[in-house]
Batch of 2 targets.
Target 1
Amino acid sequence: MTTYSLLILPGDGIGPEVMAEVRKVIGWFENNRGLSFDVSEDLVGGAAYDKHGKPLADETMAKAQAVDAVLLGAVGGPKYDELDFSLKPERGLLRLRKEMDLFANLRPAQCFDALADFSSLKREVVAGLDILIVRELTSGVYFGEPRGISADDTPGNEGGRVGVNTQRYTSGEIRRVARSAFELARKRGNRVCSMEKANVMESGILWREEVQWVHDNEYPDVALSHMYADNGAMQLVRNPRQFDVILTDNLFGDVLSDAAAMLTGSLGMLPSASLGAPMANGRPKALYEPVHGSAPDITGQGKANPIACILSFAMCLRYSFDLGVEADMLEKAVEQVLADGLRTADLMGPEGGTPVSTSEMGDRILAALSAQ
Ligand code: NAD
Ligand code: IPM
Ligand code: MN
């Protein structure tokens, strides 16, 4: 029997709360579907800083490189706001992404029918929505050099300090994430819309030209369009179902995916997969995490919606373990509890529903799995 190795990094804030529900789901698949997981757990973010004085220990980094897949909760929180930039919790997550070379971040936004009335947009705009944002994750302005804040804070020298970040892409970086988007599009609606700002940024011109090159030479069968990212943000809210796969850079992808979250009803619904090059077993190096953060405003209150983290595990089943049947089962179980009217606090609107806590939501998802 295959044993899948998993490294779980719950992180900070609601990270451990939502990850506890994923652990239940893992247990359910072991007990009921005969799957075998070798699960280890470690620290990332503020939790790692508290223990090791840095947001990701080298030993944890090495473990992440060695396992079949990493599951991450969330990092960050006000407790760490004053830390030196290099020690901030977010640096731990960015180090994982960079050193594992997880260049393709898949952020699907699906509107479950039971939540179509809950979205802040009208039902007829979001019902049936199923789009996939492919965000470049290891380059662009998040990592470009030069970067930093100039040290010149001489009193009286008002305006003398400079904050610098550099938007930088190579053609190779653009081509590889474009290939990921085209491959994924072929298994869906066969359409890719690439978003940048080629009207104001040279890196945007390069992005557009390279995406077009990959299309023309390798994926001429996929329908490709280009859009300026600001228009893309507007179109996402105006008529999101016009899109199938959206391909975009690191920063635009971060912003556009939070916007897309509200099309589904809540940021607590959006999962993600961060994929790199294939490992020796043919499967991609991978980290799975919800799109949301550590939600300090609701931490410790049993209010967090665990669905984004649970659906991230469904993506892990599909992309890292090739367990499409099990992934479908888990996604159906989520759909079922929503259809049954179960709602964590973030999903409670005027149309009502049965309020449930984080752990009750997890329990009901297990029950829905068992009922299949
Ligand atoms: P956030 O995503 O943590 O929270 C934004 C809002 O959404 C909050 O009102 C929160 O309560 C709500 N929310 C988020 N997830 C939810 C869930 N599962 N269920 C119910 N409600 C949910 O963003 P923020 O407040 O801007 O950032 C807080 C911290 O998280 C910061 O330190 C930030 O850097 C970090 N962050 C981490 C990640 C990550 O680890 N991948 C992602 C985004 C933000
Ligand atoms: C995300 C987060 C991260 C990002 C932060 C926490 C580093 O916002 O995963 O969306 O900006 O990529
Ligand atoms: Mn984000």
Target 2
Amino acid sequence: MKVSDKIRKAESERRCFWSFEYFPPKTDVGVVNLFDRMERMYMLGPEFIDVTWGAGGTTSDLTLEICTTAQSVYGLETCMHLTCTNMPREKIDIALEQAKKAGIQNILALRGDPPRGQENWTKVDTGFAYAVDLVRYIREKYGDYFCIGVAGYPEGHIENPDKEADLLHFKAKVDAGADYVVTQLFYDVDVYLDWVKRVRAMGITIPILPGILPIQNYSGFKRMTALSKTIVPQFILDDLEPIKDDDQAVKDYGVRLAIQMCTQMKEAGQMGFHFYCLNLERSTRLTLEGLGFVAPREQVRPLPWNPSLGKNRE
Ligand code: FAD
């Protein structure tokens, strides 16, 4: 079934829904563990799951294998990510054909970052330059067979300093035939809500799912947000400071923050949430439990101090 149909159904039933994103592990043991986790997380009732695609097709076989198993063995509605740079069109054709053969009807169409070890992405001969090209290509070749998702950037895409031009490029890929949007992770809900308003004002009506990444550990969070220049509200930095050396306390704070962010978005009318699970179960499960979306199995451990979670914000 198409993700867009599932979203439409959930919205018409006025119920919140969620999806999980996984990446292909590097080792065989990691793959076995991932399948085990997917099977358990099936019980959390995701509307669909995503599997990422290594830039330049570096994980193509494994991404396809995981997608095929998730779709046909675990019965999880699966969306395969597909990038289009640093890769010939023939590789895209093979991926789309195999996805179709496996009964997968959902593709997240992306440009892709430079493959590991390379500084820039490239358009190879017979390949594409931007996500919009891939959206057009899939629509031309497959008509309505695939439901196509695209990436959105509430803070603007890091490579484009011109936010207005970036929004217009975003609109172009939606207009080329996208069915829904999943956003880049963010930690400032106001930025997300404001971006959604601007996007809607441009006439974009397809569903938008915010990408949620519960904080897992302090150094990883600092490194990742610095690299991607993600806006981190000061209250989060203040809350994390006293617990930065206590991994479990940071994880628990990450869950509380994710619950608070989703609650704020829900109050603003958001019904769907996309979780970057990092192939882990606990933080996502606890967030869903805390939101009352699934029955609780365990309590989040009380923190040794009272986090502000933005309560003192002006
Ligand atoms: P595009 O929409 O093509 O935009 C990229 C940049 O080009 C932007 O700065 C835009 O303003 C500019 N631009 C767009 N069109 C034009 C044009 N016609 N002329 C000039 N400039 C233009 N990466 C992976 O490798 N594998 C994954 O599985 C993966 N999954 C992701 C999932 C999500 C939800 C998100 C948000 C990102 C994901 N990424 C993944 C990262 C993504 O590949 C990068 O963010 C990449 O830099 C941009 O991809 P895009 O599809 O958004 O690009």
